[in-house]
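Exercise 3.2. Students should predict the tertiary structure of the chain below and write it as structure tokens, then compare their answer with the key that follows.

Predict this chain's 3D structure.
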Amino acid sequence: MIYCSFIILATLSCTWNQVYTQDITLQNVNPTQPCESKDGNECKKQWTYRGRTYKSCTNDFTINGEAWCATRVRDDGTAIRTEDCDPSVCEVPRVCIVTSGPDRDNSCKFPFKFHGRTYHSCQEWTWGGQHHGKYWCSTMTDRRNEHVSGEGNYGFCPCRADLACGCPWGPQPTSDFTIAPADDIGGQPLK
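Answer key:
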């Protein structure tokens, strides 16, 4: 990300930094260059998908761990074509990708609701067995962010290696996970 400040007589001072704010990772993004997909198509500035409005790359619905954007929309703004975002020119959401469990390599869907509670980070596995001591998250939620149970829609978080997982031990997130809407499917939409 570029931080610029104007000094007396219109001198411009800029520095390049990698910054983490909430769940967005900024990777030397040039704010004057439009966000593009990995295929070189310009991402739309705003689009709607499954009733939600997006203004930047998202990890909602991803199964390959890549953030995506709409590259074509209908007149009403509904996405009709999506592509993976190019992190060298786009602000890319920072997400927790599960490294084991039934839905390995999918992203956590924060916040998720489970048994009446809302979670914004990976939670301790409390059911004993071989997963005792691990932290898990939902990889699929419905429109109300409720975890979709009974279909293997969860995985175990790499707490010691990934800040985005927000585990209580190991690396800690740099900010609270406030909004990371999820939905009821776990695949790249509209390819």
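Discussion points: DSSP finds no helices and 14 strands in the chain. The longest strand covers residues 2-7.
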